[in-house]
Predict the 3D structure of the following.
Amino acid sequence: MLVALTVATAVAALLLAAWCGWAAWRDQPTKDWHFIGMGVVALMATAQLVVGIVQLARGERPGQDSVIFVAYLLGAFACVPVAGFMSLAERTRWGSLTVAAGGFVLAVLQVRLYDIWGA
Amino acid sequence: MTSRQKLISGPGILLVWLYGVMVVGAVSRSAYQISTEFDRAPLAYSLSALAGLVYGFITYTLVRGGERARRAAVVCCAAELLGVLVVGAWTLADPGAFPDATVWSDFGMGYLFIPVLLPVTALYWLVRGRAADRQAVAA
């Protein structure tokens, strides 16, 4: 469950990064549709945080330390919303590029989460 | 000139985001390592904590804006670049001193080389900001 969610979130985050990168390339700010996309990705990261905590509560343990696991879950949870708010403050292509960078960072966090859970 | 010169408009917002990510990464990593296994690699963990402090200060100056903050940011970015280069070379030359990695190990390879690319980009942005400001004053 958690692994499937991790892979799905990583793919969604990369799609979001490509989409917002495309907007930046075309010199456009983030628009409503982008924010819906960010909402979907943020929702997946939230689901991941909940599932991760439930699995910990059930007594399942990640391969590495639980503290690191929860820290990465929280980072993944906050990543896209923070980038989204920054793009609201910067209504140019650079706001779009910031969200693209946010999606990319989230994908990297997913790879790390995969290692931390499985190692 | 009533309002402070903005350092986070345009490309600056992307810099703030990347510096913010590095702050969270370096500070949380070093806080965890120092509190749980400091004796294993004290030098590496202290250097990561130092990197976190520098990143935090640069983020603050960028968000604050104004000429003094810009100058402080230039100094810190130069120090950051020097730190990445020295620590990067140090980790390659004397791996024995580093039983575990720092944020700046191997020029920041573990962080996709963002630690070495970020200060170069930031210095370019900050120095260009001053040039544009002077033109605006002259005009």
